[in-house]
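Severity: low
Component: inverse-folding endpoint
Summary: output formatting inconsistent between runs
Steps to reproduce: submit the following structure tokens with default settings.
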């Protein structure tokens, strides 16, 4: 057994991917077993799940979830204090001392590390090459802590489809803020800005783009609902482990909620009248106002960065 003393779950996952160690689903497939969903790459969440799972020290854990009621297919996760644990039901493959020490280290990292850093461009920056969101990470330099946007597709994937690249967060942020300020300065006459924005809103509402987007989003919702139903059926037939079920279910529900937000946003735009929009413009956009998150997201749909550090800004009003 290879031990990874002191390494983070993300670091362990990266090492396993680099060394082409098969994931649990890949290993099951190699043994001729059926799996509900094939996962080719290790992730930090998978490592955490394994470290927490008492089945590896010979215990059987049941009752982690329960159905809301007999009419509903929805399940909720129960607190650990309500789980039913039967000890020593089978031979362990990990020593209990090692298991306890690993969980202690995981708990220490959980309480000491900073999980996220709130910044102006959060959720807006994507990789131009692979289309995935870029992560924000810190580097401790002689001049102090610096933050970078980084594409991790090349690191996380066993079959990389993107090049590893990063860029200073402050450089991107300054560029975006300066671009927005230049735009506001160009249309510094508030009445001109209102007239132009009203025209953009009307033009957008008169196209089929918004309506088609809502239809496509609702189709995606139905697809996810069908996938969740199938996933639950597989769980009832014991075709999928409970931990895997919860992980996949949570991921699909998060995706479903994000799509619901997009539908609501588009419906609000379609229902917005020009008088309401004029009031919004008047209240939010003036040249003396500091560029905050609300103003920035009113202008910018997303930002993409390619491997050569070139920035692509996508405005919400494409005709401007």
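Observed output (run 2 of 3):
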């Amino acid at each position: 057994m290879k031990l990874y003393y002191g390494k983070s779950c993300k670091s362990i996952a990266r090492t396993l991917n680099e060394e082409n160690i098969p994931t649990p689903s890949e290993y099951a497939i190699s043994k001729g077993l059926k799996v509900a969903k094939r996962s080719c790459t290790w992730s930090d969440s998978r490592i955490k799940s394994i470290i927490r799972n008492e089945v590896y020290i010979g215990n059987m854990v049941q009752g982690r979830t329960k159905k809301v009621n007999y009419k509903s297919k929805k399940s909720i996760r129960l607190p650990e204090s309500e789980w039913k644990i039967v000890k020593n039901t089978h031979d362990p493959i990990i020593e209990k001392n090692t298991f306890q020490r690993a969980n202690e280290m995981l708990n220490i990292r959980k309480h000491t590390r900073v999980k996220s850093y709130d910044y102006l461009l959060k959720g807006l920056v994507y990789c131009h090459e692979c289309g995935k969101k870029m992560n924000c990470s810190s580097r401790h330099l002689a001049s102090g802590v610096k933050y970078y946007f980084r594409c991790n597709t090349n690191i996380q994937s066993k079959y990389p489809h993107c090049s590893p690249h990063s860029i200073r967060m402050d450089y991107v942020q300054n560029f975006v803020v300066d671009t927005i300020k230049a735009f506001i300065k160009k249309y510094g006459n508030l009445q001109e800005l209102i007239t132009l924005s009203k025209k953009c809103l009307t033009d957008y509402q008169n196209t089929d783009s918004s309506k088609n987007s809502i239809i496509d989003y609702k189709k995606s919702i139905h697809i996810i609902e069908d996938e969740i139903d199938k996933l639950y059926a597989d769980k009832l037939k014991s075709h999928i482990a409970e931990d895997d079920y919860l992980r996949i279910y949570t991921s699909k529900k998060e995706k479903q909620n994000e799509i619901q937000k997009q539908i609501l946003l588009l419906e609000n735009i379609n229902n917005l009248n020009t008088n309401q929009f004029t009031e919004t413009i008047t209240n939010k956009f003036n040249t003396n106002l500091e560029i905050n998150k609300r103003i920035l997201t009113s202008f910018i749909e997303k930002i993409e960065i390619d491997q050569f550090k070139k920035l692509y800004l996508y405005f919400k009003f494409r005709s401007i």
